[in-house]
Write a structure and sequence with these properties.
103 residues, alpha+beta, Translation Initiation Factor IF3, 3 helices, globular
């Protein structure tokens, strides 16, 4: 799924208030870390990831690679923080309820 510019802008506004859920250290994107990001996307849909200064990979490249591996969309990359989105159709939603990343 590719986000439209309007959807991406709305998600950027939502992500502004989020804190990073996943922190990437000097070991980079290990299989365990990718599983953690996958789990976070499944439960929250919108996830902020912070990369440590000691990470060797460039943030834009890292966010694009991780999004591709996990079937997510890159919402934005600012500095060493990237935001990914992946809709989970199996997530239970009630009419008028807050989105999963706010709860």
């Amino acid at each position: 799924m590719t986000l439209t510019s309007r959807e991406r802008a709305a998600l950027r506004a939502e992500a502004h208030h989020l804190s990073p859920i996943v922190h990437v250290g000097h070991q980079g994107f290990t299989p365990t870390l990718l599983q953690t990001i996958d789990d976070a996307l499944r439960t929250h849909e919108l996830v902020k990831i912070a990369l440590a200064r000691t990470t060797d990979v460039k943030p834009k490249d890292a966010s694009r690679d991780v999004a591709e591996q996990l079937g997510a969309d890159v919402v934005q990359t600012i500095g060493r923080t990237c935001t990914l989105y992946r809709e989970n159709p199996d997530l239970k939603r009630k009419a008028g309820a807050l989105p999963p990343w706010r709860s």
